[in-house]
Amino acid sequence: MSDPKEELQRDVERTRRELGETVEALAHKVDVPGRVKEQAHETAERVKGQAQETAVRVKEQAHETVAKMTAATNQAVDSLPEPVAVQVEKARRHPGAMAAALIALIVAIWAISRRNR
């Protein structure tokens, strides 16, 4: 049989341990700002992860869309008459020159329309 004094000592230690755990749990519940910060951090991490996943999916879809558009454009160019297809290919190789030509055409049309007023 164990000594009643030792048994009482073990009960006291167990009660202290349980009381400490209870006090910690209560302190955590009472620490509303700390819990809010913790929850905000967890939410921010979750949203950050979701944003990264979404960015990856959007990037993949963009690549697929560009590939489909390129294929459709190539198919459309292939169906054009030879002289037109040659001009389209030239424009593809020199997009800056094409943009400059379009800007010059727009400016010319604008100037003519202003003169006719």
If you had to describe this structure to a student in words, what would you say it looks like?
This protein is an all-alpha fold and 117 residues long. The protein has four helices and no strands. The protein has helices at 4-30, 32-78, 82-93, 95-115. The chain starts with a helix and ends with a helix. Keywords: Membrane, Transmembrane, Transmembrane helix. This is DUF3618 domain-containing protein. Pfam families: DUF3618 (PF12277).
Structural class category: mainly alpha
Report the count of strand segments.
0
For the sheet with most strands, the description reads:
none
Rounded to the nearest angstrom, the radius of gyration is 37 Å
The number of helices is 4
Order of helices and strands: HHHH
Strand content: under 5%
- pLDDT < 50 runs, ≥5 residues: none
Give the oligomeric state of the chains in this entry, treating copies of one chain as homo and distinct chains as hetero.
single chain
**Helix amount:** over 70%
Average pLDDT: 88
Distance between the termini: 117 Å
Shape call: rod-shaped
Keywords: Membrane, Transmembrane, Transmembrane helix
Pfam family, one: DUF3618
Protein name: DUF3618 domain-containing protein
Organism: Lentzea sokolovensis
Spell out the blueprint of helices and strands.
Blueprint: H1 4-30, H2 32-78, H3 82-93, H4 95-115
Features of the shown structure:
DUF3618; single chain; transmembrane; 117 residues
Give a short overview.
91% of the residues lie in helices and 0% in strands.
